[in-house]
Amino acid sequence: MTGEQFLFWLLALTTCGGAIAVVVSQNVVRMAFWLVVALGSVAAIYFLLHADFVGATQLMIYVGGTIVLLIFGVMLTASGPYVKIKTSPGDMVIASGVGVLVLFLLIGTVTAVDWKQAHRSLVGNEHAEYPPAPAAGYNKSNPSSGNTARPIGLKLLGVSLEDTDPTRKDAQNLSAGYLLPFEIVSVHLLVVLIGAGYLARAKRRVPVGADAVVETLAAPVPVQVGVYAGFWRRAAAMLIDGIVISAVQVPAALLMGPLTEPPSNAFVCVSSLLIFLYLAGMESSAYQGTIGKIIMRIAVTDTYGQPVSFLRAAARTLSRYLSGFCLLFGYFMALFTKRKQTLHDLVAGTLVVRRK
Amino acid sequence: MSALFAANSLGEFLANNVSERWGLALAAFIHAFILINVFALAPLIFIWLERKVSGRIQDRLGPTRVGGRFGWLQGLADGGKLIQKEDLVPAAADSMLFRMAPYIACIAAFGTFMLLPFSGGWVAVASDIGLFLLVAILSLEVLGIILAGYSSGSKWSLFGGMREAAQMVSYEIPLAITALVPIVTVGSLNLVEIAEMQTSTVFLDGWLMFNNPFTFIAFFVYFTVATAGCKRAPFDLAEAESELVGGFHTEYSGMRWSFFFMAEYAAMFVVSGLASILFLGGWNTGFGFIDQALAVTRYRGALELAAIDPETGLYLTNFYLPSFLANLFGMVVFVSKASLLVFVQIWIRWTLPRLRIDQVMMTCLKYLIPISCVLFLGATLWPIGVLHFAERSTVMPFFEPIQNKIERLKGVAQKSHDDAEEERAEQDSPVSDVKDERPAVELAPAVASAPLGSEGSK
């Protein structure tokens, strides 16, 4: 038995022992402790396999995650010290039935694989010996084995080193790596983060009677305080605005040159600035809304029903990018938030209400 | 025997010369033995230092008697006392978890020592993702504290554990982000590489702290966050004795109690060492002429280790004494820097009053996290902006791109190595001219391109 095999068996035993102890023990915190033992041993097996990055991630996410689970799931919900979980005999029968089925599934999967063939195709030799000869101690041919961080990092940036054949110069040679999954996961996490921030934010209470006070104040555009504009009305307003903006932008672009060519940087800058000024300026003006909003009979107010300042309107306009970045999730938030606010409304502290 | 002193070839040396099977195990054992001594000795010294410094700050003398004039054996005397104490487990405690918790804290703190390089190549595990792994292991220490607090069966302990949990989970975020700020500049998570890249050209210009304004501020943010991460005053809410008796360690006594403090002082040393590697040049002194000479010597030592006997194809693992001495000097510099930062932590503890728990959480969530995010963003944009205007990636004077600098120093080392090889060849066979065709010279580019610490290809 080589050292690596010995370590593997040791770690496999602690993994399985920890997993069994999770099931057997009745105290919730002890369960969490044994879960940490099992997950930590799995991380150690990754290190044994020279997969440093996966091992470190396992430690950080699963072991660290169990700690958080321990804190928030157990300690904050426990009604007394040392909560015990007692399983009823019925549960026990069902659980062991499911467990045995999963065990059969795993055994079936493991035995279904032709390991000899898999090993031979892996090493690329039809006559490779099986079981494979254990690696003898220090890997001289590849001393940096296990240092996978750089290739993984480059792949996440869309650069693939091992697929790249230096003798070929064509475009097919370049691989996209994991750029797309990475971006999707990033957007997903951003959405989760914004959602969590929205749920956990301090609820600003509108003082009692504020509606009445607001109605007595002379607003330039009479708005219906408390009657919030719905999602479809706002979507229609955006559509009209889009038509208005492109009615100016497309002819201007045609003057600059044919549409098939990419626009110049100066044109993009100037038109972005003009669109920004149009949106922010109209919303902070006496009209309290863009042309689309005027047509759809809605207006932008602050949380007290007052017209917004230019600064607030500018913040709202810039926050639209935030709403757009997370796969338009920010816009769809108007469907379920209490005052039908989108993400940029929440950031800027504005409301969109119906006109009288 | 000589190559034993060079840690990055120890495993290979033993595998070649002792036994293929037991060599690595023996090397691992030696590494672990050396490290556990560092791990145990550092708290001993820092506890004495803490008592002495706190005494001086409070206008007392501190320990004066044990072990002579300065009471320098006080730590040992404390340890002796703690070993003799009775090992108590309260009746209300969950005794298995209660006994286990100090070991978890201790093992997590010790685990980080494996990844902490003490000098060029003097590291037990030279991982490509050293920083990530170190932070991941360091964050496990909190598990021991939480379990201790929960399993003691005492309200004070539970409060301490919960505070520690809340504090650690919050402070990990700015810790990781500020540790990433220098990483953006050097582009490596390998702690050895990060420190090697900070070789100065003239004076202090290589240190990442002085690379751009964002890394400069990030050092102070990191140090604040790291102090809180070690639950040191003014962030020691988990053991706030004026409110919680002793916090999470109220019910502990004897050796188990002292394990928590060993873990705490070891963690202080680790975060301070990490600060000196990430921001303060690691084992570089900051004086260009010293650093460059030492770096060349170290690279030369790596080349000597990686030299291959052209006849047998085996590694010669030549021992190069100047390289060993350079590494030893580097270790002295590194430990001095880390100890200085530990001293600052002690100084802060005895100067500032303890914060309230809500103030601790507010400092982190409302100030440190946004600040660290801004620093991270700034550090990302800074080189792009500077490159746009100045066609270089930093505004520091005496600028030399990191890659050029390392290549230049490695080139000098390679040249001196080749000269020595030729001399040796002439001495071996003064008449023979066949030896001039020896493949060592052909091997040279392959060896030179290998990173320090790896042994090149066979």
Question: How would you concisely characterize the structure shown here?
Answer:
The complex is a heterodimer of chains A (356) and B (458). Chain A has helices at 3-24, 28-48, 52-75, 89-112, 115-123, 149-156, 179-200, 210-216, 231-256, 265-284, 291-295, 310-325, 329-332, 343-348, and strands at 223-228, 298-302, 350-355. Chain A has 356 residues and is mainly alpha-helical.
Name its key features.
heterodimer; A: 356 residues; mainly alpha; Four Helix Bundle (Hemerythrin (Met), subunit A); 2 domains; 3-stranded antiparallel sheet; 14 helices; 3 strands; 60% helix; B: 458 residues; 0% strand; globular
> Low-confidence runs of chain B (pLDDT<50, min 5 residues)?
1-8, 432-458
β-sheet strand percentage of chain A: under 5%
How far apart the termini of chain A lie comes to: 85 Å
- Mind summarizing the main beta sheet of chain B? none
Please, how many domains of chain B? 1
Total of helices of chain A = 14
Mean pLDDT of chain A: 78
- What's the gyration radius of chain A in Å? 31 Å
Order of helices and strands of chain A: HHHHHHHHEHHHEHHHE
Structural class of chain A: mainly alpha
Taken from the alpha-carbon principal axes, the silhouette of chain B is globular
Oligomeric state of the chains? heterodimer
Q: Domains counted in the coordinates of chain A: how many?
A: 2
Strand portion of chain B, in percent?
A: under 5%
Fraction of residues in H or I helices of chain A: 55-70%
Assign a percent range to the helix content of chain B. Answer: 55-70%
Q: Biggest sheet of chain A, strands in spatial order?
A: 1-3-2
| H-E string of chain B | HHHHHHHHHHHHHHHH
